[in-house]
Design a protein that fits this description.
- The structure is a homodimer.
- Chain A contains 13 helices and twelve strands.
- The first copy, chain A, is an alpha/beta fold.
- In chain A, α5 (84-95) runs parallel beside α12.
- At the A-B interface, α4, β1, α5, β2 and α6 of A face α4, β1, α5, β2 and α6 of B.
- Chain A binds a DNA duplex through α2 and α4.
DNA sequence: GCAAGTCATGACATCGGTGTCATGACATCG
DNA sequence: CGATGTCATGACACCGATGTCATGACTTGC
């Protein structure tokens, strides 16, 4: 590969002049510049970041780690892949500042994290992002104190800057919107109880009811997911059974995520119930390929992965620029996604509701 | 950040000795080694790849480009994201050889490709992979002649090494398996006709029928996808209408992908047809979150993204090792995924078939 | 007991750029 | 017209590793 000296010789100038043409950091006569540019093109010269890095001490690199990292192995064994949207959004945000992303995946083994971090440090990355596959608590060791680090879709106990979805607010908004549509008995089929998202969303569910002055009925909230296809299916059937045979059954079922909603569609139909005429369904995640494709399309809450990735990149860049001091919040940044209203939820206007109630009371 | 000289001074040795400890490329007395290692740990020294790269000319980096690249804009406007599984498999394959992956996404703009390649070259990547979001023809310009380059999930006309799914064989195997299950009238709802995958899969559909000595009936193959939610939905309804009102309607519907199969489930149910008792359904892709979650679980063909990514990494590494000569195939490497048999297809044993035919003939 | 060989280590140049400072040509001004 | 300033450019050191070669201490063999 041609070097800057080859170019200098071909153009009949010094290496430093070529450098000036490359960086435009000092005036160069037009004629000279053109000779240099011609030589660059002719030789196919591409400057070496490595050599450049040695003087400037700025690599222009950001390290991104994906995959399992948490020490706690009692989490549900997911596939270990963060949504690509997060990765892509991070990459875009970083690229817009002229830096390049190096990516590494732990492949599900948290003991891979240390060597990956080491490799990144050897490449003198100027910052690190860890992106988790679902909202969780993690523990990232081994990063030098004060090194720019941001967690995306996860958080730790050390106060590392982190960006996570606002699960509480998301579920709150969804329930609020369901209430506005006239629903009063809102069933909730939850994911695993130990999941951070489940805890927060359940809080959001309750706070929305509280605000509307509706009593929380524990019978309406049922665990409906375990990490086993066979048993999970049975659990979901039973959960729906339990809800639908309540004296006052729900008029809408909120599901832990869109995949669960998809299975709920099938189960309800097997029971002869039409969605949404007989019962409404809502999901969570706005997993587009599911939510838009299901019939009827699914009302759900967007898990704002693109925004989380973008914010993570943004925050990391600002850490790199201004140092770790800033206004150290110590609290994760919450990003809420909007409620996506589609046809799986029936609007029961409050007026109809009143009429019904009136009739029943007679 | 500490340098090798800082370590040398702290350990009371020369820089070269520290280098020997780091690389274990020459014997060092145990006592000396321990002093050096202690100094390294104390100073938190991490060797600089940049400096190392200057002498060795080996960066240990591979560039991965994702997102839109094709010059032809008449392709369906997909979201432009390759499945993360491809990215992850590539990353794993590369990492296993001790190299690191740099990733960049075009964000849907093919004019972004040139600057991305330039950046990668500046970082002296030792090879490039381009991973497409769906099986397609692409045109990658600007890479120096002879530079190690592999295309994943796409191919070009220049004979660049590429790894693509064997769509023809996949559909062939699926139809063959359906025939073995006793189906004779096999409907096929296709994706856009201009898509490479559609063309190949249609060939596979026909070749499987040919092998079984069953005449191809064009009325059974219907275009059922356009890139518009509203119109697409109507198109799919009409397509199913057309198939089901044939004098001899199909007993199974093959769908262009799993997402289409999901919509087909809904449409069939709206028509009062049970899957699979009244009609069987098969998909393509093995998009697990759909195929496993649908009720009943979907028979489909795996799109072997993990294998494609792994093979792409493998092939690139071998190009880097042994140079571009090799046995230049000039033909894309085809990777076939298995048929995943689930409950959405009813087995109509040939015996039952014979009985029916016998009875009808009486 | 001395030449030859092995072992552990160090001095120094080098990779490809950029920062610092110097220099020569020319324009400007009193 | 000579002093001064500006502009374009070049010489040279340096960033942090590693390759080459040299060197001194010690072992081995006859």
């Amino acid at each position: 590969m041609a070097t800057i000296y080859d170019v200098a010789r071909a153009a009949g100038v010094s290496a430093k002049t070529v450098s000036r043409v490359l960086n435009s950091d000092a005036p160069v006569k037009t004629a000279t510049r053109e000779r240099v540019e011609a030589a660059i093109a002719a030789l196919g010269f591409v400057p070496s970041t490595a050599a450049r890095m040695m003087r400037s001490n700025r690599s222009g690199l950001i390290g991104l780690i994906t995959g399992a990292i948490s020490q706690t192995t009692d989490q549900p064994a997911s596939h270990g892949l963060p949504d690509l949207v997060i990765v892509q959004a991070i990459q875009r945000g970083i690229a817009s500042s002229g830096m390049t992303v190096m990516i590494a995946d732990t492949g599900g083994q948290s003991d891979q994290v240390a060597p990956l971090v080491q490799t990144f440090l050897e490449h003198r990355v100027q910052g690190l992002i860890y992106a988790a596959d679902f909202h969780q608590r993690v523990a990232l060791p081994l990063v030098p104190k004060g090194f720019p680090l941001v967690l995306a879709n996860c958080f730790d106990d050390a106060g590392t800057p982190s960006i996570v979805p606002d699960d509480r607010r998301g579920q709150h908004m969804l329930v609020e919107r369901l209430l506005r549509a006239g629903h009063r008995r809102i069933g909730y089929l939850t994911l695993g109880r130990q999941m951070v998202a489940t805890q927060l969303r359940t809080e959001g569910y309750r706070s929305a009811l509280d605000e509307a002055g509706i009593a929380y009925d524990p019978a309406l909230v049922v665990l409906a997911y375990i990490d086993d296809a066979k048993l999970g299916s049975k659990l979901l059937w039973d959960a729906i059974d339990r809800l639908m045979s309540l004296p006052e059954p729900p008029t809408v079922l909120c599901c832990g995520n869109d995949a669960m909603a998809m299975r709920v569609y099938g189960i309800l139909r097997s029971r002869g119930l039409r969605v949404p005429q007989d019962i409404s369904v809502a999901g969570f995640d706005d997993h587009r390929i599911i939510a838009e494709t299901l019939y009827p399309p699914l009302t759900t809450v967007e898990l704002p992965y693109a925004a989380i990735g973008a914010r993570a990149a943004e925050q990391l860049l600002s850490l790199i620029e201004s140092g770790p001091d800033r206004n150290a919040d110590r609290m994760p940044t919450l990003v809420a996604g909007p409620v996506i209203w589609r046809e799986s939820v029936l609007s029961r206007t409050p007026i109809v509701e009143f009429q019904n109630q009136g009739r029943e009371r007679l």
